[in-house]
Design goal:
alpha/beta; Rossmann fold
């Protein structure tokens, strides 16, 4: 089986490459970053160091790495059986155009459709990528797009332009419903029959909690993510948030409460692990995107309201995210906030136009945060509320 990874970033080279090598496959990359491609070509390998030295360093040997413009790279992708896409959600449109060009060059003798597996922390990346590819193809070429869920944290090593620090995580859950075949040669792929629910739970639990730590940690001036996650005030709000999220997810999707609580607890243990040397800035950046209507903060807030709960905890985090985007000069959020306040931001960036309860609550917490009211005092306001029930 010929496999190519499109995207040699942290997930691509620090997680997917290792999984492929450990399952006996060659590791091949395509990337648009010329400097990174040259560095990988020169090194010929990637060192994977594990948080807390839980394992000995793994050396992932690179069989081939090409820039996206290289004809040999295009030929390599075109002859692949499986392509993993790990480029970041904001780059899916560019990758779709690239893959449409690749598909157009597939040899007529190719017996099987190309299987594309997204490896993104995003909402419905497979659906988006498939639609974008179809929109760029001039002819009907057989291919499938399915998606996987990334639970493994990977960060770049400060003393290397190539090496990665990673969790010792060895499985990749994927959606089997979108592709009519098994992957016996890829034992790390874990079948998840209700993948859409898993992804929703992940984004509304893991990603939402991650954003909570990042934006509250930024408010309190933390640099290291693990330090922020263990801050007393942050941890207090995080517990309230988990209670709200667990309640609404179980109510909406009929999830066993004990299973969801355990799911959330695993995320908390992970985020509070100080041996994972991540930064607040890396997790907080691009706040405007994370305030979109289907993303990790607004999505669970709308679900909560649908289930009869106005979450004060989520309102504080949303307000903190808006503040982060504003102070970091993110456009167009800063302009929208200057022109029309929180209501304008929630309307145009988050798509909230008729939820006055949400708008008013987020605005009230934003005013406190902008006035530099101590987070402990803001949280005290939350704890005085009667559960936030509508």
């Amino acid at each position: 089986m010929d496999i190519t990874i499109v995207g040699a970033g942290k997930t691509g080279r620090g997680f997917l490459g290792r999984l492929l090598q450990e399952s006996g496959h060659k590791v091949r990359f395509i990337d648009s970053n010329e400097r990174l491609v040259l560095d990988l070509q020169s090194a010929g390998k990637v060192g994977i160091r594990y948080f807390g030295n839980s394992r000995a360093t793994t050396e992932v040997l690179i069989d081939a790495v090409y820039h996206t413009s290289n004809p040999e790279g295009i030929e390599m992708v075109a002859s692949s059986d499986v392509v993993f896409v790990a480029v970041g959600a904001s780059n899916l449109t560019k990758v779709a155009r690239y893959l449409a060009g690749v598909l157009a060059q597939r040899d007529d003798s190719t017996k099987k459709p190309l299987v594309i597996i997204t490896a993104e922390n995003a909402i419905n990346p497979a659906k988006k990528l498939q639609s974008e590819i179809n929109g760029s193809l001039d002819s009907r070429v057989p291919f499938y797009v399915t998606e996987s869920a990334i639970f493994c944290s990977t960060i770049e090593v400060e003393d290397s332009s190539i090496d990665i620090q990673s969790e010792a995580f060895d499985v990749l859950p994927y959606d089997p419903s979108r592709v009519p075949q098994n992957f016996d040669e890829l034992p790390f792929l874990q079948v998840e029959d209700n993948f859409s629910l898993l992804l929703t739970r992940k984004i509304y639990t893991y990603n939402c909690a991650s954003a909570t730590i990042a934006y509250l940690g930024a408010l309190k001036g933390y640099r290291l993510y693990g330090e922020a996650a263990n801050d007393e005030d942050v941890a207090t709000l995080l517990d309230v948030l988990y209670t709200d999220i667990n309640t609404v997810l179980c109510k909406k999707y009929h999830i066993d409460p004990a299973a969801q609580e355990a799911f959330a607890e695993r995320s908390k243990i992970k985020f509070q692990n100080k041996e994972i040397l991540d930064t607040v800035e890396r997790n907080a950046r691009d706040a405007s995107r994370k305030l979109a209507g289907d993303e990790r903060l607004i999505g669970p807030m709308l679900l909560a309201v649908e289930q009869g709960l106005l979450s004060h905890a989520l309102s504080i985090v949303i307000a903190a995210a808006i503040r982060y985007a504003y102070t970091h000069q993110e456009s167009p959020l800063k302009r929208l906030l200057d022109e029309g306040g929180v209501t304008r931001v929630l309307s145009e960036i988050s798509g909230i136009t008729d939820q006055t309860e949400i708008m008013n609550l987020v605005e009230s917490y934003y005013r406190q945060i902008a006035a530099e009211v101590p987070l402990k005092q803001v949280i005290a306001t939350l704890l005085e509320q009667d559960g936030g029930n509508l």
